[in-house]
């Protein structure tokens, strides 16, 4: 088996020179709130597969178990675990030989930020500067990078000078584990009062 996932894997399982399978653990990253992660294997041998089965874990005897009582068949599965989980895949070749692999999907918490601004009720006076801040609602999951699409950015804030038209500000925050959150807000413009 080799792993076709886009996430970085630590090792690959390969057929050794002595004809035995060298099994190594693979780690996958998953962020809470994601749609799912696909675990996929390729057959890298000249032996055709009769079947490929996926399992959800091991019982106390070290035997593979399944969710719902039966394995999932095919070269891939999509999973959405809520906690770090192991998944096992077993392939049976047309010659009856078997190979297995362990995938560990590490679940990371996603960032939880909101935007706050100097705007009053979502509007800024024409010609004023607009300051937008990213506020972390979960200090246990801090962002390590802030990518703003407007203004002069300084970490978790950005300033748009001399606002004259409605302005949309977008931000992508990312954590050290690679989890991201996208935020966007549009701020209107109102005319400032004038003395006569």
Describe the structure in your own words.
- This protein is an all-beta fold and 196 residues long.
- 0% of the residues lie in helices and 53% in strands.
- The chain is built from no helices and 20 strands.
- It has strands at residues 2-3, 14-15, 21-22, 26-31, 37-42, 49-55, 57-58, 64-65, 72-73, 76-79, 85-93, 98-108, 113-117, 123-125, 130-136, 143-148, 152-154, 157-160, 167-175, 180-190.
- Strands 4-12-11-6-9 form a 5-stranded mixed beta sheet, with no helix packed on it. It has a 4-stranded antiparallel beta sheet with strand order 13-15-18-17, with no helix packed on it. The chain has a 4-stranded mixed beta sheet with strand order 14-20-19-16, with no helix packed on it.
- The protein is elongated and about 95 Å long.
Major sheet: size, sense and barrel closure?
5 strands, mixed
Give the overall average pLDDT. Answer: 78
Give the proportion of residues in helices: under 10%
Quote the beta fraction.
over 45%
Radius of gyration: 25 Å
Q: Given the structure, what is the number of helices?
A: 0
Break the fold down into its secondary structure elements and pairings.
Elements: E1 2-3, E2 14-15, E3 21-22, E4 26-31, E5 37-42, E6 49-55, E7 57-58, E8 64-65, E9 72-73, E10 76-79, E11 85-93, E12 98-108, E13 113-117, E14 123-125, E15 130-136, E16 143-148, E17 152-154, E18 157-160, E19 167-175, E20 180-190
Parallel strand pairs: 4-12, 14-20
Antiparallel strand pairs: 1-5, 2-3, 5-10, 6-9, 6-11, 7-8, 11-12, 13-15, 15-18, 16-19, 17-18, 19-20
